[in-house]
């Protein structure tokens, strides 16, 4: 019998109150795990953003894209304002 099946069998023998308590504990464990994983990923993203912000080549690309889209953005803004 697998571990999951064994645990399930044991849980089924618990009282409803014990099952509720177990659910609450398991929920808290899962919340903690998800929070920890999310924080780890967020730290990775934050580190990448900091690196990008300090990269002169990236900054040059951003300025070039802003210049290329400036005219289109201005035209879109004017169209939006004229339709209001």
Could you describe the 3D structure shown?
The model has no long low-confidence stretch (mean pLDDT 90). The protein is mainly alpha-helical and 84 residues long. The chain is built from three helices and no strands.
Mean pLDDT: 90
Uncertain segments are: none
- Tally of extended strands? 0
Structural class: mainly alpha
Biggest β-sheet description: none
Order of helices and strands: HHH
Topology of this protein?
Layout: H1 3-12, H2 16-53, H3 56-82
Attribute tags:
single chain, 84 residues, mainly alpha, 3 helices, 89% helix
In short:
With 84 residues, this protein is mainly α. The chain contains three helices and no strands.
């Amino acid at each position: 019998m697998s571990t999951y099946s064994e645990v399930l069998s044991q849980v089924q023998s618990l009282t409803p109150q014990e099952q509720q308590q177990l659910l609450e504990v398991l929920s808290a464990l899962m919340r903690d795990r998800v929070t920890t994983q999310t924080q780890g990923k967020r730290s990775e993203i934050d580190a990448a953003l900091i690196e990008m912000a300090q990269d002169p080549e990236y900054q040059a690309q951003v300025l070039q894209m802003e210049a290329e889209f400036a005219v289109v953005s201005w035209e879109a803004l004017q169209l939006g304002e004229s339709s209001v």
